[in-house]
Amino acid sequence: MSFDPSTVTTKQLRGFGWLMGGLFLVIGLWPLVVHGTGIRIWSSVVAGLWGTMALVWPAGLMPLYRGWMWFAEKLGWFNTRVLLGVIYYVLVTPISLLMRVLGKKPLHCHFDSEKSSYREVKAARTPDHVVKPF
């Protein structure tokens, strides 16, 4: 699925502008809030530009939005194929092999030819158990 610029609405562009403006505003105000030092002027100016563009002329954000969507597609491809593959084969597979060697079965799932069903019957609860759940 690729990005189609003809389907982008003004609302999406405005939301993109507000999001990026907010992100740069957080970057600009971070030193003030966390460390008690001065704000980052450059980031605050960029945040103001993004917010102004989003408010006044959202269509002007289209080239930036298009570039951001291109980057997002590449990042999504990398995440789904490379990062998740590495996590699966480096983390999940060795853990499962180790558990199999040690004989651990956390779900207690094993075939039993004597059973007619694996259903576990639970005791019925009274209706007032949801009155004060916490």
Strand-helix topology:
Layout: H1 10-35, H2 41-56, H3 62-102
Largest sheet descriptor: none
- Measured by DSSP, the beta-strand proportion falls in under 5%
Give the quaternary arrangement of the chains.
single chain
The Cα radius of gyration reads 26 Å
Tell the overall outline.
elongated
- Structural class, from secondary structure content? mainly alpha
List unreliable stretches of 5+ residues.
none
Count the DSSP helices. Answer: 3
- Helicity level: 55-70%
Overall residue-averaged pLDDT value = 91
Q: Distance between the terminal alpha carbons, to the nearest Å?
A: 44 Å
Q: What order do the SSEs take from the amino end to the carboxyl end, as H and E? A: HHH
The total beta strand count reads: 0
Q: Could you characterize the architecture of this molecule?
A:
By secondary structure, the protein is an all-alpha fold. 62% of the residues lie in helices and 0% in strands. The protein has helices spanning 10-35, 41-56, 62-102.
Précis, in short:
By secondary structure, the chain is mostly helical. Helices cover 62% and strands 0% of the residues.
Quickly list its features.
single chain; 134 residues; mainly alpha; 3 helices; elongated
